[in-house]
UniProtKB/TrEMBL annotation:
Domain NADH-Ubiquinone oxidoreductase (complex I) chain 5 N-terminal: from-to ranges: 38-79
Entry's Gene Ontology cellular component terms: endomembrane system; membrane
GO MF annotation terms: NADH dehydrogenase (ubiquinone) activity; NADH dehydrogenase activity
Chain segments annotated as transmembrane: 53-73, 80-98, 104-125, 146-166, 172-190, 211-229, 235-257, 269-288, 308-329, 341-364, 384-402, 407-425, 445-466, 473-494, 567-586
Protein's cellular compartments: Endomembrane system; Membrane
Protein name in UniProt: NADH-quinone oxidoreductase subunit L
Domain NADH:quinone oxidoreductase/Mrp antiporter transmembrane: 100-381
Top-level taxon of the source organism: Bacteria
A Gene Ontology biological process term: electron transport coupled proton transport
Organism of origin: Kribbella sandramycini
Length: 587
């Protein structure tokens, strides 16, 4: 009964967000402050606001959260009450971030999302990888949030207010402005899994697939993009911060795309893809122009549709087949049976991958081209950052097309005869000689799970046309050529039964191992040293004091014999000793 109540409440809350966004749409911007206090010259309190950005993000969060909640009704039945309660709280926290006009209210929603993500990622807490992934996500994002907290105080005190709408870059000292925005950027980098705090997001995949869809598509990781878009005038006023943002974004998008190109698990490919696509949004924001901001938000909206769709499709594979990993799926894909047994999942996932790859006609094509167009215009203005972003996004688009084609072919189509290439999926498969499993009973999921897929698939197509077709045809043609050059190598490798994965890429550049050596090992040694110091130094003194007291008490106990003759003898000996001592001193 409790689980049912939470399920209905979760869906109802998500639908409420959509309704609120619809009611607010078209209204003029407004703010409302409450619980304000004046401390010296600084005003501290809470405030909310509604404007176009608020409506846009509430609609995105509401639609994706509704799809996730409905999908979860058919997907998850284990610990359902706590799951739906946490998803509802998670959605509410993102809504608080979106409507906040106070840095403190935004911080509350920001931190609640972090706590909920830890609990949702560890939903299957009996699995070791779920527990370790949740802890890793919590620690890395909390570490970044320390900088975020200090950034809030630096900006708020420097501006004399913590109201977002009242922050005026012209009234803030340039040094304070740069310091504050860089500290906020630390929190954004952690929350959105950008280099160098990117490793937590792929390891968060042991959580339920609907949770992955919600985190990757509409909440948490998207909060960083929203924050910079909300404080865009403040960030754009610091050239140093925007340059750092551009460097981080360009390095991240290429790094994550290369990792996705070598990953062998569907959800891990999609996770690295999320890191890469978020970096494209940050790169657009780093241009510091209105066109860049618009392109970033456009890509945020389309990404929410096709990435939410892809994670829910991966959830169907997990739910129906038993694993979302190529390592298991290959037994079903040797004869291409999955696309026949799961036709709706096949079609919708094809649409999602096409949108992600930037295939012309799909939403991702238009939004990615808007980023390229903004970078092209900025680069022609003589900006080095513009050229840097343009080249990086172009290379990333080619890599994205490569890993999308690779995933699509290896999951849904018949695996050709192996060419003996190193890294081929079945080269070391202990089940390769077994007969193909019976797929006669394999079928698509229930319509509770398929209906959200169809809705998001429609969004992955139609959202590209909402912004209007004002393409730069030169950029569009160039991006199409890039997609073709990305698709052809993936098809060539698949047709030869080869999937070479360089060791460097397969191990994701060894970043996790490096972090383990640089941070985990020293912390463990320091913790052991602290234990030794506490046990063998501080504890030794404590134990020595206690032992001394015990020995002294035992000595005094020996004197208390209860024999009067012994007491008199001791008294006489004492008197004689004192007399002798007094005589020695007197002489």
């Amino acid at each position: 009964m409790i689980a049912t109540v939470w399920r209905v409440a979760g869906v109802g809350f998500s639908l409420l967000l959509v309704l609120i966004a619809a009611l607010l749409y078209g209204d003029s911007a407004s703010q409302h402050a409450f619980l304000n206090s004046q401390i010296g010259e600084v005003t501290i309190g809470f405030a909310v606001r509604t404007d176009d950005l608020t409506v846009l993000l509430l609609a995105v969060v509401g639609v994706v959260a509704t799809c996730v909640q409905i999908y979860s009704l058919g997907y998850l039945h284990e610990r359902a009450a706590s799951y739906h309660a946490l998803v509802t709280l998670f959605t509410a926290a993102m809504a608080a971030v979106v409507v906040a006009d106070s840095l403190f209210l935004l911080l509350i929603g920001w931190e609640v999302m972090g706590a909920c993500s830890y609990l949702l990622i560890s939903h299957y807490w009996e699995r070791r990888e779920a527990r370790s992934g949740a802890v890793k996500a919590f620690l890395m994002t909390r570490l970044a949030d320390v900088g975020f907290l200090f950034g809030i105080f630096v900006l708020g005190v420097g501006a004399g207010t913590f109201r977002i709408s009242a922050l005026d870059p012209a009234q803030i000292d340039p040094g304070v402005l740069t310091t504050g925005t860089l500290l906020l950027l630390v929190g954004v980098v952690g929350k959105s899994a950008q280099v160098p705090l990117q490793t937590w997001l792929p390891d968060a995949m042991p959580g339920p697939s609907p949770v992955s869809a919600l985190i990757h598509a509409a909440t948490m990781v998207a909060a960083g993009v929203f924050l910079i878009a909300r404080l865009y005038d403040v960030f754009a006023a610091s050239a140093t911060t925007m340059t750092v943002l551009a460097i981080v974004a360009c390095v991240t998008m290429l790094y994550a795309a290369l990792c996705a190109a070598a990953a062998v698990e569907v959800k891990r490919v999609l996770a690295w893809s999320t890191v890469s696509q978020l970096a494209i949004m940050f790169a657009a924001l780093s241009l510091g122009t209105h066109e860049g901001r618009h392109a970033a938000l456009f890509h945020l909206v389309t990404h929410a549709a096709f990435k939410g769709l892809l994670f829910l499709c991966a959830g169907v594979l997990l739910h129906q087949v038993g694993s979302a990993a190529f390592v298991v799926l290959r037994r079903y894909t040797r004869r291409g049976r999955l696309r026949k047994a799961l036709p709706v999942t096949f079609v919708t996932m094809t649409i999602g991958l096409a949108a992600l790859a930037g295939v012309p006609g799909f939403a991702g094509f238009f939004s990615k081209d808007s980023v390229l167009e903004a970078a092209w215009e900025h680069a022609h203005g003589g900006s080095v950052v513009g050229w840097f972003v343009l080249v990086s996004v172009g290379l990333t688009a080619g890599l994205t097309a490569f890993y999308c084609m690779r995933l699509w072919l290896w999951v849904f189509f018949r695996t050709p005869a192996l060419a003996g290439a190193v890294g081929a999926f079945e080269a070391d498969d202990p089940m390769a000689d077994l007969e193909d499993p019976d797929t006669s009973k394999l079928k698509d999921a229930s319509w509770l799970m398929l209906a959200p897929l169809v809705l998001l698939a429609l969004g992955a197509i139609a959202l590209g046309y909402v912004d209007g077709l004002h393409l730069n045809w030169v950029v569009a043609l160039a991006s199409t050529v890039v997609v073709i050059f990305g698709v052809l190598p993936a098809y060539s490798l698949w047709s030869r039964g080869a999937d070479p994965r360089p060791v460097l890429l397969e191990r994701e550049f060894g970043v996790d191992r490096a972090y383990h050596a640089l941070f985990v090992v020293p912390v463990r040694w320091l913790s052991k040293l602290s234990v030794l110091g506490d046990r063998d130094v501080v504890g030794a003194y404590v134990r020595a004091v206690g032992r001394s007291g015990a020995l002294a008490s035992q000595g005094f106990r020996l004197l208390q014999t209860g024999n009067v003759q012994t007491y008199l003898t001791a008294a006489v000996v004492g008197v004689v000793a004192l007399a002798v001592l007094a005589g020695v001193i007197a002489s």
